[in-house]
Every structure is written in structure tokens, then in C-alpha cells.
Amino acid sequence: MKKASLLGLSLLVALGAAAQADVVKEVEHNLKGSSPDYKAASSQIKAALQNPETKDQVITWYLAGKAGFGLYDQLYLQETLGNSLSAADKKDAGHALIDGFNYYFQALPLDSLPDAKGKVKPKYSKEMLKTIKENYLPLKNAGVYLFEAQDFDGAYDAWELYATLPDNPLLGKEAPVAEPDTLVGQIMYYQGLAALSVNQDQKALNKMKQVLDKGYKNIDVYRYAVEAARRLNDSIELVNLAQQGYDAFGTEDISFIGQLINAKLNGNEYESAMKLVNEAIAASDPEDKANLSQLYDILGFIYEREDDNVNAAASFRKAIEIDPNLAKGYYDLGRVIYNDAVKLDEASEGAESPEVSSKLLEAAKLFETAYDMDEDNMDAIPGILYRLYYRLGAGYEDKAEYWQKR
User: How far, in Å, CA of 168 to CA of 102, rounded?
Assistant: First the structure.
């Protein structure tokens, strides 16, 4: 086998560099024509952006950026003329504009380097800065295109450029003037939604907090911020944001107060929890039976924790009266009645008590109803019913045996 000569390798490298230089010239010629093919130019110039002989030349990045801005304008014009863009077209348009900005960001410093005589003579900077400023607002639309095409990462990036462009130090006095904070905050909110859509939950949470700092305090910002915190199991942020949402919108969205109730219950702050539950009940839509019944079930749980079984039972009864399909409500009511029966039985010191039997049978019926409704989540009930019927004694042996085998 013949060994490749160093001369041969050098020749190949030189030819490769020359080829990339030719590509740059070809793209430049294309973009100067009367009908530039921006998509072809964008594709063609990419290799030159990586080649050592061309990647440090301002013209390479300038042409790449010009092709990107041109492709976006071309596709956007199609839409304004009444031609619907496909999802692929929208994706191309959005990324073309993002690339246009990023390529110009690479070109600007190269255009300000001193020449062989040590003089700085920018050739393209004025045009590039003008184009960047003119395309500040179109970044919002590029994000919409990408969001609609379900390219959520791309949408996030387009809107990030929009949010940060006015403060880009590279642009200096030529930077565009930022829109009002509320408008910028709205776009940042959409960024948060984009991040949530691809399960980038920490990114979404951080963005939603920035949105609130901007003063854009739409109720949905709090909702999605709380959702991001919930996904992250960040209980501190969740409670903090739920409290902010509750302070701003009260019971307009019950989910805020629901999170606060859970936090109070987890901290054994039953008095505070009860106050919040009663407020939520008062604010609930009577037609939202599932939500209202759950609130009464929670209220019963709080009474039970405070050893007030009378009010606990009343709350659980109210819960299943509102929503007869609430399996947990039947279970919770059965548990309170069963516990009362056990206490009475123990206080009677073995003497038969019709009241004890009556309570045990009522509890049994409630437990069986709950089990029939939601067998998968009520796997503790067979054991409870076995002990219950065993306690009832004579005449209930078959039932005790039945539940023992379940």
C-alpha cells in the first residue's frame, strides 16, 4: 500500500479551503441577484461557517445572516399575500430569523477588527445593525410560527431573543427600544408555556417568576407557575406562588386555596385550614359538585383530627349528598361511625349494646359501597370489614369469612 505524501495531504487541504472560498463567493453572487434563493444560500453557506479558512471571515457570517433574514421575509410575505404556510414552512421561517440574528452577532465583532494597517473599517455593521433593529418585533411572530409548528424549544429561543435584544451589549446605542414591560412579560409567559410543553419544568418556573417581576400578573401565570412547582415537587415555591395567586385573585381559582389548604394540613395547622376550606366552600360554584364534595370531605377530615366526630360525620354526609359517586366520602363516613362504635363497645365493658350493633352495620354498609365504587383504591376495606363482622359475632360468621378471603 502506498503511503499518502504530505504534499498530497496539503494539496487536499488547500483544495478544500479554496472550495469553501468559492462557496462563499457563489452565495454572495446568489444574494446579490434579482431573485435570491435564500433557502439554498442558507444551506450552502453552512459548511463555510465551520471551515478554518472561512469561519473567521466577516463575509461568511454576514452572508449566512442575510440569507436567514431573507428567508424569513420571503415566507412571511407569502402569508401576507394570502398563502397559508405549512408547519414545515413556519418552522423554516422561525429558525431562519433566529439564525439571522445569531449569525449577525458572530459577524459584528469580526467587522470591527483592525486591518493590516491597524485601522478599523466596518463594511457591513451599519446594514446589520439596521436589519437587527427592524426585526425586533418580527421575533414575536417567529415564536408564534414555531409554537404553532409545535417546535417549543425553537419558540422559546425566538422569544428569548425578543426579550433580551434591547439589552444586548453588542448592539450599543443601536439596540432596539424595548416594548413596555407588560408586553414583554406576556411574551415571556408564552416562553414559560413553551418550556412546560416539553417538560422543562425548572426553566418554566424560572421564566414564570421573571414574568411576575415584569408586572404581567395574569391569573394564568400563577396557575402555570404553581403547576411547574408541583411537577418539581418544590413545596416551598408551590406554597409561595399559590399564596401570591390567592392574594391577587382570591377564590377566583379554587386551586390556589386548595394548595394552601394542603400546606396547612401537612403542617397540622387545622384551624387555619378550616378557615380556608370554609372560604373555598363559600366561593365554589354550586354546579361544580366534584369540587364542592371534596371540600366537604376535607372539612370532615379536619373535624375528625380535632376529635369532633359529630361535625366530621355531618361533613362527610354532606360530601356524599352533593356527589353520590365520591367513594372516599363513603369510606371516611364509615370510618368515623366505626370508630365511634368501637369506643362505645369498649365503654360498655362487654355488655351487648344495640347502639353499637347499629353503628357497626351502618359503617359496614358504607364500607361496602365505597369498595364497590373503587375497589382498586380501597384495598384496606376487606380487612376492616372482616374485623367489623367478627366483632358483631353470632349471625355474621359467613360475612366475616367472606371478607377474610377477599
Answer: 12
Helix (H, G, I), strand (E, B) or coil at 114: strand
The per-residue b/e assignment along 86-99, b for 16 or more CB within 10 angstroms, e otherwise, is eeebbbbbbbbbbb
CA distance 388 to 249: 47
Single out the residue of 166, 159, 156 nearest to residue 132, CA to CA: 166
> Mind listing the pLDDT tens digit for each residue in 130-165?
999 999 999 999 999 999 999 999 999 999 999 999
Rounded to whole angstroms, how far apart are CA atoms 190 and 168? Answer: 21
* Gap between the Cα atoms of 183 and 179, Å rounded: 6
How far apart, in whole angstroms, are the C-alpha atoms of residue 389 and residue 401? 9
DSSP string spanning 153-195?
Answer: HHHHHHHHHHHHGGG-TTTGGGSPPPPPHHHHHHHHHHHHHHH
pLDDT for 283-298, tens place per residue? 888 898 988 999 999 9
Give yes or no for a contact between 75 and 102, defined as CB atoms under 8 angstroms apart: no
CA distance 227 to 247: 17
C-alpha cell at 260: 394552601
CA dist., res. 177 & res. 404, Å (int): 75
pLDDT at 194: 98
Residues in the chain, pLDDT under 50: 1-2, 4, 7-15
CB 56 within 8 A of CB 62: no
Neighbour count for residue 207 (Cβ, 10 Å):
27
Q: What share of the chain is helix, strand, coil (3-state, %, to 5)?
A: 75, 0, 25
Report if pTM > 0.70: yes
